[in-house]
Design brief:
Length: 212
């Protein structure tokens, strides 16, 4: 069972999404960047705060996210996502860097849309050299990779982040776009895992299908 998680580091809905803890050891997780277009970002800090009140209320959060990261005219805020993506080239393929950036921006209000701040946070989270990470994050290769994963996201014909692509080894697929709550995802995951296990059990009892 594999889940591909398409996200934008600075997205509040991506901040709220939680799934990995429940299925550790059962499901292979990977995340990919899906850049938001400029018009999907707030136009002011007050507007960002309004969005945070909405998402925080819907998720029943005991705290409000911090819109202090917002800087007028900086959309699209691709720098945090580029830095998180660059860390993968140093074998940091888990969630440490992207979560550290999201926490710094959306809980602490740090200006993670600036190269020097984003790189400092990411390097500290992953134990990387800041100068080396910065060079890689600003490279054409990393930018091209995030454009490619954004194109993958667009090919799913969805426009909301987070988006989850669920796939099992019997070719079942499910796409959830814009859902951050775990319940519908968990129900589908359980069903797909159950079906994959049933196929494995059947194969153990009856072997491969007979020749035509």
């Amino acid at each position: 069972m594999k889940i591909t998680y398409y996200l934008e580091v600075i997205s509040s809905w991506c901040y709220w999404a939680e799934l990995k803890q429940r299925y550790a050891g059962q499901v292979e997780f990977q995340w990919k960047i899906a850049h938001m277009p400029p018009d999907a970002f707030p136009r002011s800090q007050a507007q960002a705060e309004w969005f945070y009140r909405r998402s925080g209320t819907l998720m029943r959060s005991p705290f409000m996210l911090n819109a202090g990261w917002f800087e007028p005219g900086d959309a699209p805020y691709q720098i945090p996502s580029l830095v998180a993506e660059a860390a993968k080239d140093f074998n940091v393929t888990d969630d440490r860097v992207r979560l550290a950036l999201a926490h710094a921006g959306e809980r602490e209000g740090k200006k993670i849309g600036r190269w020097e701040i984003a790189v400092e946070i990411a390097a500290a989270a992953a134990g990387l050299d800041r100068a080396v990470l910065l060079k890689r994050a600003q490279s054409p290769e990393v930018a091209a990779r995030t454009r490619a994963t954004t194109a993958e996201f667009d090919a799913l014909q969805v426009n909301q982040r987070p988006t989850f692509l669920l796939e099992n080894n019997i070719s079942d697929r499910a796409v959830f776009s814009g859902l951050a709550k775990i319940e519908p995802l968990a129900i589908t995951l359980d069903a797909m895992l159950s079906d994959a296990t049933a196929y494995q059990s059947y194969a153990a009892h009856f072997g491969p299908p007979p020749p035509a």
